[in-house]
Amino acid sequence: MVPPRVIERVEAAYPDEARNQGLTATVVIRLVIGADGLVSSASLVKGAGHGFDESALEAARKLRFAPATRDGTAVPVQIDYEIHFELTDAPAATLSDTARATS
């Protein structure tokens, strides 16, 4: 099976409360991605509080993927998707993400 690949990424907003306190976090979201590449379900696996969870869920629901394929046919898949929130010296926060298949 070929895993899904992000084709349209949405930046998660850095929560003001967390920014003001200098907090960083990693939030893990479980996504169900349809054969059409759209997120059909997003649920929290590992939260961090301080507004990170809500921001990560909102962004994750808007992601678009090239769908997973099996033998050349698009198939639905479930993955765990990490969103990393890190403050830098730059005016905007650095956000990165990683994904791994769970099924």
Describe this structure in words.
It is a single chain. This protein has 103 residues and is mostly beta strands. The chain has one domain: TonB (TolA/TonB C-terminal domain). Helix content is 15%, strand content 47%. It has two helices and eight strands; from the N terminus they run E-H-E-E-H-E-E-E-E-E. The strands form three sheets. Strands 3-2-7-8 form a four-stranded antiparallel β-sheet, with helices on one face. The longest helix is centred in the middle third of the chain and has 9 residues. The radius of gyration is 14 Å and the shape is elongated. The termini are close together. The model has no long low-confidence stretch (mean pLDDT 89).
Derived from helix and strand composition plus strand pairing, the structural class reads: mainly beta
* Percent range of helical residues: 10-25%
> How does CATH name the architecture?
2-Layer Sandwich
* Terminus-to-terminus distance: 10 Å
Number of discrete helical segments = 2
Keywords:
103 residues; elongated; 47% strand; mainly beta; 8 strands; 2 helices; TolA/TonB C-terminal domain; four-stranded antiparallel β-sheet; two-stranded antiparallel ribbon
